[in-house]
Amino acid sequence: MIDRIILFRTTKRILFGPGAVDKIGTEAQLLKAKKVLIITDTGVIQAGLLEGIEKSLQSVNLPFVIFDGVEPDPRIEVVQKSVEKAKKEGIDLIIGFGGGSSLDIAKVTSIMITNTGKIDSLFGIDLVPNPGIPMILIPTTAGTGSEVTPIAILSDTKEKLKKGIVSPTLFPEVAILDPKLTIGLPPSVTAFTGMDALTHAIESYSSINATDLSDLLAFRAMELLSKNLRMAYAHGENLAARSCVLEGSLLAGIAFANAGVGAVHAFAYPLGGEFHLAHGLTNTLMLPYIMRYNILGCPSKFAQMAKAFGEKVEGISELVGAEIAVRFVERLSDDLRVPRRLRDVGIPEDAIPRLAEAAMKVTRLLANNPRKLTPEDAVAIYKSAY
Questions:
Q1: Where are the domains of the chain?
Q2: What pairing do the DSSP bridges indicate for beta strands 135-139 and 93-98?
């Protein structure tokens, strides 16, 4: 039963399926574009993934320029460079093409073209005054769901913390998801991004802001990811598995765009900000420990997660079922060779107090968590993950 007023939002237009990227020229025409800026990174270009987009844009005689300065966990300074190029070239459409970092840089570039002031003033919720220029977002990884979220994350090197801009102006006009683009992903990237998507599904499902709509999407995402991620990792050329994982990432993205994520992300942000670890890795490092802490907040939800993972939960208590869900996540992490101990990635134990202090500052996400946390809880959780 829906017992309160809810708001459900997502990207206006979503194209999904093998070969979908070939439609980029047509989609750009529908948006009446005259000149395009493609925002991506050098790895995507070197992999030859950009060729399809270039041919599609050329087929409709649409001029384009490329900004390839995106970096992992991008700094604020990267946006400043992309905005300079966009203004200099007089572009009226942005195509974000790549992993979550490229999509986030595309989002922030879009709004910085139409808004004055510094980026710092936009960190937070609903602080973007004007809509940006139109965007088409095309993920080449199956993980962040950024193509269907109103969120962009940047690294603040001064504070050693990742910060988010949350605004409906960050939804693109079009999202294009083509599983063929993920075929060449290395196993480690498949693992990290896949676990990121699974974290989105788990956290949105257990969020205090979850609704029937977000639960439908999150539950299906957990089914798709849990059943197909191992195959996509072990046999990267398997298009069926790749397609299911990308669909899972998409559905999880829509779910968490509406329900929000919680303490896993809040605890992961300081790890990425200070130690420059991949976002999917930092989520995986914290996921089982936060899950165990959160069970008491919504045991029935965690027991249902075990069901989504294909585990047998009939005839057992909710608490036992919930623990089965946590063990599944641990086993999956091990199968994908994703570390789940802080010490395994070189984080010193004496960093825990400052990590806990930083995590408690991420109040935007902690507000969604199904169980409240104290600073002492934060220290204990990091220690359990060590």
A1: 13-182, 187-385
A2: parallel
| pLDDT tens sequence across 143-157 | 999 999 999 998 877
Residue 97 per-residue DSSP state: E
**CA–CA gap between residue 139 and residue 97 (Å, rounded):** 6
What's the pLDDT score for residue 311?
96
* Cα–Cα dist 28/134, whole Å: 9
CATH architecture under which domain 13-182 falls: 3-Layer(aba) Sandwich (3.40)
Place of tokens 């006009």: 173
**Tell me: the pLDDT tens digits for 185-230?**
999 999 999 999 999 999 999 999 999 999 999 999 999 999 999 9
Average the pLDDT over 283-297 and give the result: 98
How big is the chain, counted in residues? 386
CA distance 114 to 129: 9
Cβ neighbours, 10 Å, residue 54: 14
Domain 187-385 belongs in CATH node 3.40.50.300: no
Which residues sit opposite 13 in a β-bridge?
174
Phi, psi of 174 (to 5 degrees): -140, 140
| Ranges of H-type helices in the chain | 24-30, 42-46, 51-59, 76-89, 100-114, 187-206, 212-234, 239-259, 263-275, 279-294, 299-308, 318-335, 352-359, 363-366, 375-385
DSSP 103-144: HHHHHHHHHHHH--S-GGGG-EES---S----EEEEESSSS-
**Could you tell me the two tokens for 196?**
């990121």
CA proximity to 24, closest of 57, 62, 73, 67? 57
| Contacts within 8 Å (CB) and 24+ apart, 317-323 | 319/295, 322/295, 323/292, 323/295
Residue type, 202: I
Which letter does DSSP use for residue 209 in this model? T
**284 and 339 in contact (C-beta within 8 Å)?**
yes
Burial of 43 (0-12, 13-18, 19+ CB in 10 A): middle
